[in-house]
Amino acid sequence: MRWLRGRTIRARITVWSVLAGAVIMIVAGLGFQLGLDAVVTSSTRSLLSSNVAPYEAAVQAGATTAFDPPGEGQIVAVVDPAGVVRVSSLSTALTVELPRLTAMPAGVHRVTTASTVYDVVSEAVRGRGGTWHVVAARNRATEAVVRGGIGVVEVIVGLVLVAAFGLASWVGTGLALRPVGRMRERARKLSSAGGADTLPVGPVRDELSELAETLNAFITSVRASNDRERQMVADASHELRTPIAVLKTQLQLAHLSSGDAVALEREISEAESTLDRLSSLATSLLALSSIESAGPVAVTSGEEIIAEFLAAMDRAVLLASGYSVTVDFAGVTLDPAVRLPISTADFSRLVDNLVANAIAASPRGSTVVVSLGREGQTGVLRVRDSGHGMPASFIPVAFNRFTRSEASRGRADGLGGSGLGLAIVKAIVVRGGGDVRLLPRPDGGVEAIVTLPVVD
User: According to the UniProt entry, where is the signal peptide (predicted)?
Assistant: First the structure.
C-alpha cells in the first residue's frame, strides 16, 4: 500500500494490526455462523422428530381416529393409507402441498410457499390398513429473526473488538517506541553539543537495546576516527613546520649564493635532502592513515607470507650493505598451510620498517638477525639488532607517532627516520589482532617481536 509508506512506524503498525484484527474477526464470524447453522439444523431435526414421535407411536399401536390434537405452535398432519387427513394443523398453503410432502423421502426438507419458508419432515409409518404418513413442519421466520439479531450483535462486537485492537496497538506501539524517542533526542543533543555521551540503552535485552548498542559502537568508532584524524593533523603540522622552515632558509641561502657555484650546489643539495624528508614524511602519513581507515582485514596464506618475507630479506641485505651491516637470515619455520590476518603489502611494510629500524640502530660491522616461525597458535616475526639499545623510559612511547630516540635524532646518514615507522608497525599488527613488543637485550640492542593469531 503506497499510501502507508509516508506514515510513521506507529501508524503503519496500527493500520496493519487493525487489518489483521478485521480479517481475524471475519474468519471467526464465518466460523461462528457455520457452527450456528449446524446447531440450528440439529435442533430443528430434533424438534421435528419429537413432534412426529407421538403420532408414529399411535399409528404403530393401531390407532385410526383417536389422535391427540397438536400442541400450541406445533404444525403436524397425519394422513391414512387412503389419503384422508386424520389430524392437521398445517396452514392452507402447506395443506395444498400435502400430497407432495407425503411423497418426500425421510429427512429434513425446506419447503417454500407463497409467503413462508418451512423446514418439513415426512415419515412413512406402517399401521393398520397400510402405510400412514406423519408430516411435521417448522416456520423459519422465527429462526430468521434470531439469526438476524445474532448477525447484528456479531457486527457490533466485531467492530468494537477491531477498534479496541487498533487502540491497543496504537498505545502499545507508542510505549514500545518510547526508547526510540529518547535515543532520537539524545542523538540530537549529541549532534549539536558533542561530548562523550552515548545513546541510552534500556535495561531489557530487546531489539531496541541491540540497536542502541550497535549505534553506540558506531558512534565510538566515528569519534575514534575523528580523534585520530585530529591527532594526525596536529602531529603532522608540528613535524612539518621544522623541515618547511629549514627548506625556506635553504632556498633563501641559495638565492644569496647565486654568485658562488660551489655554495649554490651545496644549498641545492641540502634543499633536496629536506624535500626527500618531507616526501618520506608525507608517504608515511598516508600509509598510516590508509591502514587505520582500511576495511576488513585480509587473510593471507603462509606460503604467500614466506614468499614476501624472502623478498623483504633481499631488500634488507641490499639496504644494509650500504651501512656495513650484515643481515642474518635465521630461517623460516612457519607452516605454508597456515593463514594469518594480514595482507602481503602490509606484511612487506611491517618487515621493511622493523629491519630498517634495526639497521639504523646497529653500528658498522654488526649483525641484524631476522626469523619467521610459528609458536602455538601464532605466527612470530623476530628482528634483533646489536645496536646501542633503547632507554627504558622510551620503550613505552616507542610506538607513538613522531617519537624518536635521541640517538635516532642525531643520525646524519639518513636512517634517523620520521618517527612513524614503529607507529605504522603497531597499526598493522593491532589491525590483525596481534601484538608487537620491544625487548632490550642483556648484551645490547633490542629485539622486536611481532605475533599474529593463526586463522582457522
Answer: none
